[in-house]
């Protein structure tokens, strides 16, 4: 019996994995640790620890307003992107439709165009069609950004759906619309939930589109950005830590849902 | 008598599980049959409903903005102002090539994106290989998930966290000073280095997932067979693993490159005066009081066309089939 | 009696390729009818046209005397048991069976009663609240059957429903299907490529090939009196004899088979002397003797293969006229082995003159 992997490469690979994991986690851990620093500037070592910054952030009206605004935009984006994404995916997966691959490529276009260009072209576009910058413009651009991902997730799930399911529903007396509501949608549900949470997170996370299309009301990333530019204090760390914990929890849940839908 | 029948009916409905009888009643109602039901029965109406909204959306919002941007990039003045020409012109493109102020950041951006792409590939490849091939299959998902967790924190927060690491009084400098290696902090933040470091940190996921799924698909017996035929670790990597993971490399590199070309938040937080890259130049043309949209549009077009052609050429040369997003 | 299903001159083209050609088929109510044929023969297309999932290129289908080819699937009173069952994975067994009833707008209490009744018909009462993924193949099969029966269709269509089951379970389900068909008195149209399945269950078998009907008949009829070379070959095993007609006297024809004079039944045939003809002989109808018998047909040959097959032994005999015949015998009937000389013959009514 020969050992195909001599131990050295294997150890090196393992080391690279753990180094990488530390590389990913360390900055965020430091960022979180700094939120407990009892001083109004950012610097190591931390010295005295305090929870005051959290108290301050949680009573910060600006932060709460920005959070609500971001969540509102994220929810609106999610609803629009899910409806349109599912619709496009259904069109792409339909039989006897001419130019399906062209439609699919077009649907994925915003995902390969660099984010800045997406934002700028949308800024130019909304002026051309006379939409003011602000909430609606943000939702529109976030939706355009999220649609390709919804399309791909839904298509993946649709491809695993037995073709006979819809036929069976039709056979038992469902017209195409009822069959879609009662069979296709329930089948897509796990992928839809995963996709929706993905939409929420990318929307809450987005900076560049909001930067170009936003009005006077700041979203969460815009608020954090403004605070960073205005001078750094551990207050930002506390704010970022709260956002991070919430989004990560939601993200993990989404991951769990998509994994479950695949098995 | 009446009482007992109603009672027994009530008991029956209580005992029986809930059926979606209302759907049936709704569907068989004349209201439904004459409205949605009739539409759903007609094949052409069905096709129109199926295709209508997606096609309008795709044409309006996936192509429309790019078309309008292209249009504006050829106009002398936009929005049209009295007394100024709004003819079609190539001047906006000419401006790009005539001024080093615009030209240099663009070159810098391309180099920057290439450096970031290659660094990410080199850093992530062994990690992806380790997760896909060395770890026991039952632990694989957990190992992958551990790496995915940090990516659920947003772009801006992760960029911000890099400052904690690299600032003059950040963790690295403080640690080096405590250990006695340095007396004065090394200025790392607001340089080309901190920018690249941060963007690699931001985009590693886009490399990790395609690489992982490509490497995972390589049949392990193939690697064993290569070893059996006398290939050493390096030979196995170069002749078997690398060629077979080509699709993943192409997808990962393309995604990282395209995203790196257009990063925006990272240069604002991590870049400095000596590390101005093209997105900042473009952004300046759209923000502020003296905005110059036609020039900005032209520059965006240049960036879009050059970055997409670069990726297209790369795919042609290396031979990947398509970009996979997930 | 009015046929429950009537295909009138139905054609189906896929582009230029005909899938079903000039199909004329009337199905009597209450029968178990099997469409039998190799894959690509048009049997599934025929079923899907009846279900409403394929358009007709021309012709018309009548259900209880009414044309239905313009109706979408959900407006036809026929139900299908799909090949891979197509149970809704997100609904319990109970809700799966209730699906069609719910869409009919039936009251909850009535649905509950009907579903419970159907579940007890296949002894699945205890599985009502399970999800389809928690069932075995045979149980899924039964649920699919009950789901299709629940809305009380005029005709039940079964599209190779047993093909996913293993051999033992398939035989058990064949009997169960037949029992349910007899008990409910419904018309079943069953599609399969498995001739044994067709012979076991059917009242009537429709043999299809290349989009056309080859022969319609009772299982025993088809087996004993195949009309065409295709049917003789597809159902069971046959020795095919290429010969020339010498004369016809009443129902018995005399043939010249490579210099040997043989006889066969020619009922219903209009073959003329001098024409080419094909005779079909079932291996089990042949006899095999060690000495030349008196007054009976016997052709001399030599055993080239002897294969033990459990219930019978299959012997290949090379005849002196250059052809060979397969004979199926009782394992103990003949002890001869390869190389031994034997005499082979058959009764004239066991030889069938094929139409083509």
From TrEMBL, chain A:
Compartments, record wording: Cell membrane
Cellular-component GO terms for this entry: plasma membrane
TM helices/strands, residue ranges: 12-34, 63-90, 102-126, 138-158, 179-204, 236-254
Record key words, sorted: Cell membrane, Membrane, Transmembrane, Transmembrane helix, Transport
Keyword Translocase in annotation: no
Keyword Cell membrane set for record: yes
Pfam family, one: BPD_transp_1
Membrane disposition: Multi-pass membrane protein
Span of domain ABC transmembrane type-1: 67-254
Biological process according to GO: transmembrane transport
UniProt similarity note: Belongs to the binding-protein-dependent transport system permease family. CysTW subfamily.
Name the record gives this protein: Spermidine/putrescine transport system permease protein
Automatic annotation (TrEMBL), chain B:
Signal peptide boundaries: none
Membrane topology (UniProt): Multi-pass membrane protein
Keyword terms, alphabetized: Cell membrane, Membrane, Transmembrane, Transmembrane helix, Transport
Compartments in which it is found: Cell membrane
CDD domains: TM_PBP2
Pfam families: BPD_transp_1
Domain of life: Bacteria
Transmembrane segments: 44-64, 106-132, 144-167, 187-209, 255-277, 297-318
SUPFAM superfamilies: MetI-like
Similarity comment: Belongs to the binding-protein-dependent transport system permease family. CysTW subfamily.
Protein name as catalogued: Spermidine/putrescine transport system permease protein
Organism: Phyllobacterium trifolii
From TrEMBL, chain C:
Catalyzed reactions per annotation: ATP + H2O + polyamine-[polyamine-binding protein]Side 1 = ADP + phosphate + polyamineSide 2 + [polyamine-binding protein]Side 1
InterPro entries referenced in this protein's UniProt entry, alphabetically: AAA+_ATPase, ABC_SmlMolc_Importer, ABC_transporter-like_ATP-bd, Mo/tungstate-bd_C_term_dom, P-loop_NTPase, PotA-like, Transp-assoc_OB_typ2
GO molecular function terms listed in the Swiss-Prot or TrEMBL record: ABC-type polyamine transporter activity; ATP binding; ATP hydrolysis activity
Highest rank taxon of the organism: Bacteria
Span of domain ABC transporter: 5-235
Keywords from the UniProt entry: ATP-binding, Cell membrane, Membrane, Nucleotide-binding, Translocase, Transport
EC number per UniProt: 7.6.2.11
A Gene Ontology BP annotation from the UniProt entry: quaternary ammonium group transport
SUPFAM superfamilies: MOP-like, P-loop containing nucleoside triphosphate hydrolases
Cleaved signal peptide residues: none
GO CC list: ATP-binding cassette (ABC) transporter complex
Family: Belongs to the ABC transporter superfamily. Spermidine/putrescine importer (TC 3.A.1.11.1) family.
Function according to Swiss-Prot or TrEMBL: Part of the ABC transporter complex PotABCD involved in spermidine/putrescine import. Responsible for energy coupling to the transport system.
Subunit text: The complex is composed of two ATP-binding proteins (PotA), two transmembrane proteins (PotB and PotC) and a solute-binding protein (PotD).
Name the UniProt record assigns to this protein: Spermidine/putrescine import ATP-binding protein PotA
